[in-house]
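Notes to self, Glutathione-dependent dehydroascorbate reductase:
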Amino acid sequence: MANFEGLNSITLNPGDELPPLAAGRMRLYNMRFCPFANRSVLYISKKKLPVEVINVNLKEKPDWFVQRNPLGKVPMIEHDGKVVFESLIVNEYLDELFPETAILPTDPFERAQQKILVERLSSIQAAFFAFMMNKDGDYTQAIESMEKALANAESLLVDDFYGGKTTGYADFAVWPIFERFPAITLNPKIGVKEFPGAKYPKLSAYIERMKQQPEVKAVMKPVELHEKFLKSAWIEKNPDYNLGI
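result:
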C-alpha cells in the first residue's frame, strides 16, 4: 500500500544497524505476523497515514529496540523523538494525533461502547492461543473454548461490522485473530475443517465483508502463510520472520 514504506521488509536482528529516522517522519516497529502489531497496521491502513516500517526480531531483540521499548513488544510508534507502544494505546494515540481521520467515535458513550466491545470479544483471542499453546495434542478443550467464543462474537455482531455500518476500532482489534484462525483448519491433527462454520452465519458474512475492505485487502496475508509461520514459531520454536518475502 502506498502509505507504507517497508511493510514487508527484511526483519532486523541483533547487530543490524537501525536506519536513521528523518525529521517529521513516523516509524512503525512491527513484526509481520504479530496479530497485535497487525491491529495498528490496519489502523494506519484505514487512516492512510504515511509511515516507515521497521520489522523486528522479537525472539532475539536488537538493543536499539529494547532501549526504546523496555517491554520489547510491537507495535511501537516513533516520531519527533517520542515513542508510544501497546496496540490499543497506539491506535487511540493515532486518532488523537490525526483527528481528521479518527476511527473511534467522537461521542464519549459511543467511544466507550467500542472499547467495551474489544473487552467482550477478548475470548476470541484467548481461544486462538489455546490452540497455539496446546502441548498434549488433545484439542477438545480448545475447540470448546473456540465454540463459546464464536457464539459470543456472533451474538455481539448486530450490524455489518462491530464498528457499525463501517469498520471501526473494535473491528481492527479483533480482525487479526479472525484472519489467523483459519490456519487451524490446515492442521489435520486438530480436526477443525472449517472456520467459523455454518453455525455462525453472521460471522461468516462478516469475515467475507472484512476481506473486501480496502484497508484489510491491502495488508492481509494468505492463510497458508500464517499456518507456516505459526508452525515455525509454536512447534519448531524457530520463527521464520521473513516468510513470503
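- The chain has two domains: 4-101, 108-212.
- The domain at 4-101 is CATH 3.40.30.10 (Glutaredoxin).
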